[in-house]
Amino acid sequence: MPGTRLDGPRMLALLCAWSSPALAENALFVIPFGGEPGAPLPHAYDYGAPPAAEGTYTLRVPSVDPAIQPVLPDMELTVDAASKIVQRVTASRAYRALDECTAAQDVVRGKLAKALPQPAAGGDERWQYQSADGNVVGGAYCQLARHLPFPTLRVEITVVPAP
Predict the structure, then answer these.
(1) Distance of CA 78 to CAs 20, 45, 59, 121, 145, Å?
(2) Could you say which of 8, 37, 82, 157 is the most buried, measured as most Cβ atoms within 10 Å of its Cβ?
(3) Model pLDDT for residues 119-161, shown as the tens digit of each residue
């Protein structure tokens, strides 16, 4: 429709829809978190050869999800340089008060629960959710520590390391 503006989420969804079915990107991860651990780097963020042929590199991307963006303005993706497979997604932000941090945590956990539909197994408190196959875990929590003056929302989604 003429005059219709395509904002970030709509543009990303349109790009995902035009991609080949073999290269389909999981919008439950890509739109709110920038990428899916264990999957190829989203095409929209793949700008050629990485800085090194081995190891990992990090890529910071802006949030495009309208619910996540006010809570966490950007995400950091850790990408395997050789395969361009996303290994981990992280983000953090300090809040002035614990209730603000907790409200932000609830927003992020809502998105995580959609992308990672199973409760996390194991005793690590960082993880609240995991993928159906157990290969990806994720969580969001407010970190409080005596030496830190503000509560900090920490988010991490990662591939479970092979035993």
Answers:
(1) 24, 12, 7, 23, 26
(2) 157
(3) 998 878 889 999 999 999 999 999 998 888 899 999 999 999 7
59's tokens: 């890529």
pTM: 0.82
The whole-angstrom separation of Cα 90 and Cα 33 is 9
CA distance 62 to 77: 11
Q: Is 76 exposed, middle or buried (0-12, 13-18, 19+ CB in 10 A)?
A: middle
Sheet holding 74-80, edge to edge: 56-62, 74-80, 86-94, 152-159, 136-143, 129-130, 118-119
Residue corresponding to tokens 């959710």: 129
